[in-house]
User: What shape does this take?
Amino acid sequence: MEKVPAEEIHQRLKKFQTALATHNFDGAFLFQNVDIFYFSGTIQSSILFIPTQGAPVLMVQKGFQMLKEECPLKNIIAVNGKSLLPGTLHDFGIRRIERVGIEMDVLPAQLYLWLAETFPQCGFVDVSGLIRKQRMIKTLYELDQIRKAATILHQGYMEIQGFIK
Assistant: This one.
C-alpha cells in the first residue's frame, strides 16, 4: 500500500490545529481509525492527541513496528492500554489541557466516561464537525488517489464482464 506523503500529513495537521485554536481548544483526542489515518497515515490501533500547538503524540497499542514505517510523525510511543495516556502526554510536555475535542459522533459512551474520570479538569467538546469540514475539501493528493481508485475499479468491472451472464 502506498504511504501518504509526509507533507500531506503535516498540512492536514497544521490546518486542523488552526481550527482547534480558532475554537479555543487545547487539543483533541482521536480514537477512530479513519480519523487517525487521515492525520497520521497509519491505520494501526492507536490513540492520537493533536495539541493546538506543537507536535502530535501518537500512542500505539498494536503494530508499533509497522506504524514506524508508515507514519511521518515524530512523537510515537508504544503503550499498553489507554491507562498510560495521562503520563504519556506529560512525558511529551503536554501538561495543561482543559478544553479538549473528541469525536462524539463515534466515541463509545464507556470511553467518554473513562476520559471524564481520567481528565476531570477537562471539558470535552465535539470536534466531529471540524474534522468532517476539513476532510470534505480534497487536496490535490486526495483527488489523485480518488482517480487512481476509480481507474482500478473500472478495470475490475471491465475484467468481470466476461464472467457475468
